[in-house]
């Protein structure tokens, strides 16, 4: 009987079946597998089932890193206009200062210090040819920052790095071949047989998309341990302010550098691995009537971003329907009964989601803390928020890593305008 259920379940899209992950279902699967030897074909079971994990992909470790130099938001307008030679444009500078003041950010970290920027004047111009200078920085520094986050994740995991079977790497900072995934594998001394996936130009979706790819790898390859990394350095988008390009000024007021890493695998080894979050559902939606809302074009002058002013409104208008559909897997809990990690790509985006869904202020506190202390590190941000949620859960003595809630949502916002939603299930807190 159980074997038949298991065979049937393989015909159902795994990520869409709400009942699939119920405890009894997993128990039934475990019972079937206990009767037989794993990896041995069993009559009635498709042979490939033995090559797959049993349980859902699970976050087993988190690591984060940022460049060493902090920039206070209060003094950033002076720095930005001075280093780009635009201090005389007081009207634009005052406008930028107002935007920074209302950004909800206290501190950001950048690899690009005053010295480095002065050594690379083309990057400080508005539109000079500067691609080579930007690439030189990104090719070297993106994997290095990723390495620091990955080392922390490996320490958090406590297992040998030779057990890493896959690498998923996302960045919007630079393009090269072989990519940052190979550079990182070398820096970490991973096995040459590690299977890599490189995701370029996902923008602020990077963390969510990397988690979705890692989930599929972890669930479909028994024993897989997927190092999932996002690393972003703003050297591709930094440019002088210009009245004709106010959306660039918005980006300059919120974007920053950071890297984050997860280790994801199915079926945590009891006593050796600590499950932090189970990944139960992932999906993307292209928002209606959002063409051009967030887009970027690579040019001789670096990556030229365009943001439409109604991004926050597009988000709030569509969030109810997109998020409700995703939460089917969790039997539709109330918005205030789940935990939240929302891409902190601007305070107004967070305010709009909070207002539309009537969220209690503490629901987005972990998200706002990351925005306040680091700014928006594009795709790396949502994984920083998962770490923040875990820390807050321990500090505030919540029973689960989701601040006491069972289910939670990670929301990536990126080019398209695309929203990527990940449904997580929290785990018991340790420590
Ligand atoms: C916190 C912000 C940044 C500022 O708050 P605020 O000051 O209360 O906001 P306002 O809406 O009043 O905007 C301030 C000024 O900027 C103007 N503005 C407001 N967005 C716009 C606009 N997209 N166009 C062009 N004028 C505008 C707005 O008209 C207004 O002009 P003014 O009253 O004359 O000073 C807030 O606008 C906000 O959260 N915006 C949403 C940002 C957003 O779209 N995020 C999406 C994901 S992040 C992302 O994809 C990043 C990309 C990126 C982009 C560039 C880069 O270099 C690098 C990366």
TrEMBL record:
Chain ranges of the Chalcone/stilbene synthase C-terminal domain: 278-428
Domain Chalcone/stilbene synthase N-terminal: 50-268
The keyword Signal is annotated on this UniProt entry: no
GO MF, one example: acyltransferase activity
UniProt-listed PANTHER family: CHALCONE SYNTHASE (PTHR11877:SF14), HYDROXYMETHYLGLUTARYL-COA SYNTHASE (PTHR11877)
Family: Belongs to the thiolase-like superfamily. Chalcone/stilbene synthases family.
Name of the featured protein: Chalcone synthase
Species annotation: Riccia sorocarpa
